[in-house]
Amino acid sequence: MDLIKNTGISAQKLHTALALWPGLGGSQSTLINHTENATFRLDLPQGGKRILRVHRLGYNGDRAILSELVWAKALRDDTGIKTPIAVAGNDGSLVQRFAVGPSDQQHYMVLFEFEAGREPLDSEDLIEPFKQLGQLAARAHNHVQHWALPSDFERLRWDANSILDENGLWGDWRQAPGMNAVYRPVFDQLDSMLRERLHRFGQGIDRYGLIHADMRLANLLINGDQIKLIDFDDCGFCWHLYDFAAAVSFIEDSPQIPVLKSAWLSGYRAKRPLSQAEEDEIDTFIMLRRMALTAWIGSHSETAFAQSLAVDFVPRGAVLAHKYLAKFR
Length: 329
Prior knowledge:
40% of the residues lie in helices and 16% in strands. It is built from eleven helices and 13 strands. The chain is globular. A hairpin with a 5-residue loop joins strand 4 and strand 5. It is an alpha+beta fold. Strands 3, 4, 5, 6, 7 and 8 form a six-stranded antiparallel beta sheet that branches. A three-stranded mixed beta sheet has the order 9-13-10. The mean pLDDT is 95. The chain has two domains: 111 residues, Phosphorylase Kinase, domain 1 (2-Layer Sandwich), CATH 3.30.200.20; 202 residues, Aminoglycoside phosphotransferase (APH), C-terminal lobe (Aminoglycoside 3'-phosphotransferase, Chain: A, domain 2, Alpha-Beta Complex), CATH 3.90.1200.
């Protein structure tokens, strides 16, 4: 079977699945991203483009996926934040199912309208993009505090246990590539410190709720003076400041972090208050996210992206852990 590299998806079955939506027959598909899910750009024969997301098996179910789409639409309608627009299938449902792999297991799939724009580059001045990220986070947090969740709303809960436990949502950080007897002790200490500080910090409505949870530059599209926020697949209930931690994913040891944090806080506080006590705890959320990513690299080892990070992610994380522990001991 002709499987698309590293995705476990059959190109032939994917082509067949396109019949679930109107007007996609004969489209050319191009894989543009494969991390949690596989995302394809569809070039339609009559012109135009669409984005097709094929969900990873066993992550989010249909009700959770629909809840994601409901919140993204509510943000767009209620706040004007530019979010992805889902396209219904022939049966009127936004969430479709089809066996696109070698087995009979059905993947969930969502089709989106194509959004023009580009993500900011690491080589650019990132101060303004981080201000924009801070403003978007604050606007989203404001919205959730006053939005009545639908009765059947279902999303993941990101907390100390679901991130740090052995059966964590993204896997077990203890099984990450390179996690050996040299590095394990400092990560164990970090685990304990994070649980202690998060318990003390609490989950009050002013600091914990529904968030995007992956609000990094890769999920920001800039098109002229328009800023668009995409990929709500990880959205769930978590601490608000986790949205900043996600923004610095994979670059937590960059010397630019203090400047980027200042820019993000400036943007955030322009739209929503943030106490000094919350600001003082930002490093905790950076390290919590780092632990989540450490687990993710191990549990997603089949993806090229995880493979590219695995070589030195644990040693670099150990350096960050030592600094964090020294700060709060």
